Structure formats: C-alpha cells, structure tokens
Amino acid sequence: MRGSRFTEAQIVAILKELDAGRPAKDLARRHGVHANAFLAD
Fold first, then answer.
1. Could you give the number of structural domains in the chain?
2. Is residue 1 in a domain?
3. What pLDDT is recorded for position 37?
4. Could you tell me if residue 3 is inside a domain?
5. Within a 10 A sphere around the Cβ of 14, how many other Cβ atoms?
6. Does 20 fall in a domain?
7. Helix axes 8-19, 24-31, angle to 10 degrees
8. Domain that holds residue 30
9. Distance CA 35, CA 15 (A)
10. What is the DSSP string of the chain?
11. Using an 8 Å Cβ cutoff, are 23 and 13 in contact?
12. 30 in any annotated domain
C-alpha cells in the first residue's frame, strides 16, 4: 500500500480550513487533490 502524500499535521490543517468555511473546491485546487476527497459518507 502506498503512503500518504501529506503528513498528519498537513491533513489536520487542511481540515481545519474546511471547518472554518473555506470551500472544498478551493482547498482541493490549492492542495492538488480532488474535491470529493473532502466529502464524508
């Protein structure tokens, strides 16, 4: 299995930005991931 591209601290920082109200689409573009990565089931 491949390791993560991001450290745990980076992931936490990105999710805090999401919780603060920044749109997932903007975060995805900025960090180079697909916007669906932020959607929870």
1. 1
2. no
3. 85
4. no
5. 20
6. yes
7. 150
8. 8-38
9. 12
10. -PPPSS-HHHHHHHHHHHHTT--HHHHHHHHTS-GGGG---
11. no
12. yes
